[in-house]
Design goal:
5-stranded parallel beta sheet, 3-stranded antiparallel beta sheet, about 35% helix, about 15% strand, elongated, binds glutamic acid
C-alpha cells in the first residue's frame, strides 16, 4: 500500500487488550481518529495482542470505541496473526549482519556498568561482539534456563531524531534494542514498526509515555527501508495525585460511567472539555471543532464524580 502522500496514508489506534480502555485511552483514540480523518487519511485499528491479553477485552474495547463514534477502515489487524511478517523483518536484518543473539538476563543488564553517556537501563553491549566459542557457551546457558537467546539489533547510531506534532524535534537514545524476546515473542518496538509500514501508517498518534520510544522505532523503520511516520504524542491522563490513570482510580472506563448513569454523550462531553470544547456528544463533534494547536501540553487530570 503506498504511504507517500497524506491522502493515501493512514493513522491508527493500537490498543493492548489487557482490560477496558479508560478515559485517557478513549481520549487518545478520539484524537488519533480526528487527526487521521482531518487529513483525509484512512484510519486503522490494530490490536496489540502479543502480550497481556485478557479474555474478552478486545471485543469490549472495540465496542467502546465504536460507541464513541470512532470508525475504522478495513478489518481489525491483530499482531498475534502477523508473526511471519516480524520474522521476515528480523531475517532481513540478520542477512545484513545487523542482529546478534543476547544471552543476558534482565538482572545482568541492570547490573552491568553502562557505557559512558548511555542513559540508565540501556543495553551495555555485553553480547554484541562475542567469539563463536563464547556464543556456544551462551546458548548452552540458555538451554539450561529453558530460554531462547533474545535477538537484538546491532544499532549503528546512539541517538535519532523525530518530529512530533506538539513536542517538535525529539532526540532520544537508540541502543541495541530487542527484536525478539527470550520467550520467542517479537518485541513491541519491532512489531509496531513492521505493522505501521505494512499497513501504510504514516501518522502515529498515541500517548506520550511512548514519546521516548519514537526515535528508536523511527531508526528501526529507517534500517528496514521504510518511511518514517509523523508522530503526535498526546499527554497522558492522570489521577488527582498526578499518577497515571488506572483502573484502581475507580469508575474510569466508559462502562463504569454508564453504570453510574452517565450517557455516552456525557462521557464524550467530558473528554471534549479536557480539550477546551463544550457540548461535544460524539467523536464527530470533536472532529468538527477541535483545533490541534490548542492541545494542552500538560497531562489531563481526570476528576470524576463517584
Ligand atoms: N499498544 C500500545 C498501548 O496501548 C500503543 C502502541 C502504539 O500506539 O504504538 O499503549
Amino acid at each position: 500500500m503506498p504511504a507517500s502522500s497524506p491522502a493515501s496514508g493512514a493513522g491508527r489506534y493500537a490498543p493492548s487488550p489487557s482490560g477496558d480502555l479508560h478515559l485517557g485511552n478513549l481520549r487518545t483514540a478520539i484524537l488519533a481518529w480526528v487527526l487521521a480523518r482531518r487529513s483525509d487519511r484512512r484510519f486503522l485499528m490494530r490490536v496489540e495482542d502479543l502480550d497481556r491479553v485478557r479474555e474478552g477485552a478486545e471485543q469490549r474495547q472495540l465496542e467502546d470505541l465504536a460507541a464513541l463514534g470512532i470508525d475504522w477502515d478495513g478489518e481489525v489487524i491483530r499482531q498475534s496473526e502477523r508473526t511471519a511478517a516480524y520474522t521476515a523483518a528480523i531475517d532481513q536484518l540478520q542477512e545484513r549482519g545487523m542482529v546478534f543473539e543476547c544471552y543476558c538476563t534482565r538482572r545482568e543488564i541492570l547490573e552491568a556498568p553502562s557505557a559512558p553517556h548511555a542513559p540508565p537501563g540501556s543495553y551495555p553491549g555485553t553480547c554484541r561482539d562475542l567469539t563463536p566459542a563464547q556464543r556456544e557457551q551462551g546458548r548452552a546457558r540458555m538451554r539450561e534456563l529453558r530460554r531462547e537467546p533474545a535477538v537484538r539489533l546491532r544499532a549503528e547510531v546512539t541517538e535519532w531524531t523525530v518530529q512530533d506534532l506538539w513536542a517538535g524535534e525529539v532526540t532520544a537514545a537508540v541502543d541495541d534494542l530487542v527484536l525478539r524476546r527470550g520467550d520467542g515473542v517479537p518485541a513491541y518496538n519491532l512489531a509496531v514498526v513492521v505493522d505501521d509500514a505494512a499497513s501504510g501508517v504514516d501518522q502515529v498518534t498515541r500517548a506520550d509515555d511512548l514519546l521516548s520510544s519514537a526515535p528508536r522505532q523511527a531508526h528501526l523503520a529507517h534500517l528496514l527501508g521504510q518511511e518514517q511516520p509523523t508522530y503526535a504524542h498526546v499527554p497522558l491522563a492522570v489521577n488527582g495525585d498526578g499518577a497515571r490513570l488506572a483502573k484502581r482510580d475507580g469508575a474510569v472506563t466508559l462502562r463504569d460511567r454508564l453504570e453510574r448513569g452517565e450517557t455516552v454523550a456525557e462521557v464524550v462531553e467530558r473528554i471534549g472539555a479536557s480539550l477546551g470544547l463544550t457540548g461535544c456528544c460524539s467523536a464527530a463533534d470533536v472532529l468538527e471543532r477541535w483545533d490541534p494547536a490548542t492541545l494542552p501540553d500538560q497531562p489531563w487530570v481526570v476528576q470524576l464524580p463517584r
